[in-house]
Design a protein that fits this description.
The strands form 2 sheets. The protein has a 7-stranded mixed β-sheet. It has a two-stranded antiparallel ribbon with strand order 6-7. Helix 1 packs parallel to helix 4. With 227 residues, the protein is of the alpha/beta class. Helix content is 28%, strand content 26%. The chain has a single domain, classed as Rossmann fold, CATH 3.40.50.
Length: 227
């Protein structure tokens, strides 16, 4: 991957053993809520963009769904494969660029982005969302979860090329490389209504009142369906 679409810091983090083990509750809820009704779970295909070490895909596979995942980090994919194998589960896991997904058109019922596309610049994020739309079936659902521009780390970084922030000194995103913080207006640009039916737009914020000035952790949880 290019420096714009994937920061090598994630290979360092995953290679060093950094990995979430538990699935995210809102990802689980998205999958349950949007899985096609009346279809056996093993026929419902779920793709995660930026699957990391497989915590969300492990959950989905344990629940009987057919899973696939991509990540820019070879170490992350190796860890995800090991996690599935540990429980005698299988999935199509590949190291790949988010802007060029190695899957056929209309291959998936659900696509999950849990804070991965927010690590891409404006151009790469737009291309990646175009790829998400391509690999989704008509009516398929997409969870888009970028970091919001109300997050403390947005104010504590240096804004560089392609909308990316670097050298973040405060908040939860110190040491995680480039981040593309997203505004409410920009969501509509990345997910135009001509292409997507909106189901949910939520901004989730937590304020840590023990930190000076109240540290804010903020992200978007956007659910859309492919028209």
């Amino acid at each position: 991957m290019s420096a714009v679409s994937f920061d090598p810091v994630w290979e360092d983090l995953y290679g060093g053993g950094s990995a979430a083990r538990a699935p995210y509750a809102f990802v689980a809820s998205f999958i349950y809520r949007n899985a096609p009704k009346g279809v056996p779970r093993d026929q419902v295909r779920v793709l995660e963009i930026g699957c990391g070490a497989g915590n969300n895909l492990w959950f989905a596979a344990m629940e009987g769904f057919s899973v696939a995942g991509v990540d820019g980090s070879e170490s992350a994919i190796a860890a995800a494969k090991a996690r599935l194998a540990e429980h005698n589960l299988s999935g199509d896991l590949q190291a790949a660029d988010f802007t060029d997904l190695p899957f056929e058109d209309g291959a998936f019922d659900l696509v999950v982005d849990r804070g991965a596309l927010t690590c891409c610049g404006t151009e790469a994020m737009g291309k990646a969302i175009g790829e998400v739309r391509r690999v989704l079936k008509p009516g398929g659902a997409f969870l888009f979860n970028p970091i919001a521009d109300s997050d403390t780390s947005f104010r504590a970084g240096t804004l560089g090329e392609d909308g990316l922030s670097y050298d973040i000194t405060e908040g939860d995103y110190v040491g995680v490389g480039q981040i593309r913080f997203v505004s409410r207006r920009e969501i509509n640009g990345f997910l135009p209504a001509a292409d997507w039916d909106y189901q949910r737009i939520e901004r989730v914020e937590i304020t840590d009142m023990l930190r000076p000035h109240g540290k804010i952790v903020a992200s978007w949880r956007v659910e859309v369906r492919k028209k």
